[in-house]
Design goal:
It contains 15 helices and 21 strands. The protein is globular, with a radius of gyration of 23 Å. The strands form five sheets. Strands 1, 4, 5, 6, 8, 9, 10, 11 and 12 form a nine-stranded mixed β-sheet that branches. A six-stranded antiparallel β-sheet has the order 15-17-16-19-14-18, with helices on both faces. The protein has helices at about 15, 35-40, 50, 65-80, 130-145, 160-170, 195-205, 215-230, 275-280, 295-305, 330-335, 340-345, 345-360, 375-385, 400-405, and strands at about 5, 10, 80-85, 90-100, 100-115, 125, 145, 150-155, 175-180, 185-190, 210-215, 245-250, 260, 260-270, 285-290, 310-315, 320-325, 365-370, 390, 415-420, 430. The chain has two domains: about 5-255 and about 420-430, no CATH class; about 260-395, no CATH class. The relative contact order is 0.17. It has about 425 residues and is α+β, with helices and mostly antiparallel strands. It is about 35% helix and about 25% strand.
């Protein structure tokens, strides 16, 4: 069950730092060096100085990017740049964004959610994690004692009854507003009404939570809790380390969008032409020629609506095809331990059957993927020769996330992309105090 709590968050004093836009940052995993520098230049108080601090010459075990983040946050709290709210609340967080000309509004709320190891409760992961990011986040947790950015969680709520409790309260006060580097408008309200909070907690109690984004941060929270318990710093079940900061969004929210994650493939042997690709696929796929148009291939996939229809563009000759899997027998043989839902997922078919089996066997080489989300990114990369093969992949749906995660399975990496990312700096959660 989802055991959630209102909490006293730490937030920027805008009277000291200026516009919220200037101090927020995306999460660490989407920040490159150029954006990192841009955020550094934007404000001396930008959350980049906590979320992804720069390496400096002479860094060692005692002075490094993690210790600098911890020192900065402590200084900001001491001088009042960051202040703890006086009352416990739920932090309603709304994001307005545009994709392919259509505007969406995604709404949820941030709360503390009780940590539990995966497989021991009702919080479900849906993607695999890697050790490197978890070690990085753990060092940051140790240095700061804070959740700097929220995990993104989803809960079933077909009638929207949870958010309906919050709606009347947030419309009576103006929000705090920040616009990020991608043009997404982020709005924040604080709900402190005890009766409303009690009702929200009651409705959330029986619900499972599926992690949409932030798997590494969640698993790091579980590890951090274990460390603090061993150190004797968790006196009871209500102590702060038992919880993590999580944004909770109803799975039926009309603004909840999963973008496709297309693959740009390199590392194949020799020059990959359209005919060579068709020869590699034809034993398992029905193939339709889409000429030289990625747009035509993508529209074909969208009209088809199946998870197992893919667009493939061979960069050497500019050809595009749509290939649709004939039947699931091959996936049954390649992944017999997985469920039918997992085997029927587009990214599962692409990686297990196409990249790891057919292309390796019939074309050769070791496929290496770069990941993008917009069709324009695919065509730009193909036009500039940045890959050998471009793969258009249909997006997974919320039903896939719910069924596969609920079955205790994890999707292949980069199966989903919940856009937009949740910002760092809207509210911080202490792992040391209430």
């Amino acid at each position: 069950m989802a055991d959630i709590r209102a909490f006293r968050g730490f937030r920027y004093d805008l009277g000291r730092v200026g516009a919220l836009t200037n101090v927020v940052a995306p999460p660490y995993d989407v920040i490159d060096s150029h954006l990192q520098q841009k955020l550094y230049d934007l404000s001396a108080y930008n959350a980049i100085r906590l979320e992804l601090t720069r390496d400096e010459p002479g860094d060692d075990e005692n002075a490094n990017k993690y210790t600098r983040a911890g020192n900065a946050l402590r200084e900001w709290i001491v001088d009042g740049t960051v202040r703890q709210d006086t009352a416990r609340g739920l932090y309603v967080y709304e994001q307005e964004y545009t994709v392919e000309g259509t505007t969406f509004v995604r709404r949820g709320f941030m709360a503390r959610v009780r940590l539990e190891p995966f497989g021991e409760g009702k919080i479900y992961p849906h993607e695999q994690t890697m050790s490197g990011p978890k070690e990085d986040r753990l060092k940051l947790y140790r240095a700061t004692g804070f959740n700097l950015s929220p995990v993104f969680g989803l809960y079933p709520d077909s009638d929207g009854e949870v958010f309906a409790l919050l709606e009347p309260l947030i419309r009576t006060a103006p929000p705090l507003v920040a616009k990020d580097h991608l043009g997404v408008t982020n709005r924040l309200w604080v709900v402190t009404d005890p009766a409303t909070i009690t009702k929200v907690i009651g409705l959330m109690g029986p619900k499972p939570v599926y992690i949409a984004d932030g798997h590494h941060r969640y698993e790091t929270g579980v590890k951090y809790l274990s460390e603090r318990r061993a150190a004797g710093e968790v006196p009871d079940d209500e102590a702060a380390p038992n919880f993590c900061l999580m944004q909770l969004v109803g799975m039926s929210d009309p603004g909840l969008l999963i973008l496709p994650t297309h693959r740009l493939v390199s590392g194949l042997a020799g020059t990959v032409s359209g005919p060579a690709l068709e020869a590699a696929l034809e034993g398992h796929f029905d193939i339709v020629d889409r000429g030289t148009s990625a747009q035509a291939a993508w529209e074909h996939i969208q009209m088809d609506g199946a998870q197992t229809a893919f667009g493939f563009g061979t960069v050497s000759d500019g050809r595009w095809i749509v290939a649709k899997l004939r039947d699931g027998a091959a996936m049954g043989a390649l992944a017999p331990e997985q469920s039918a839902d997992w085997r029927g997922l587009g990214v599962s078919v692409l990686h297990k059957l196409v990249l790891d089996r057919l292309l390796r066997d019939k074309i050769g080489g070791t496929p290496v993927c770069k990941y993008v989300h917009q069709l324009g990114e695919v065509t730009d990369a193909a036009g500039q020769g940045e890959c050998q093969l471009a793969c258009l992949v249909p997006p997974a749906t919320m039903a896939h996330v719910e069924r596969i995660a609920g079955n205790g399975e994890k999707m292949p990496p980069k199966s989903t992309y919940f856009y937009p990312k949740l910002l760092t700096g809207m509210v911080f959660n202490s792992l040391k105090k209430d």
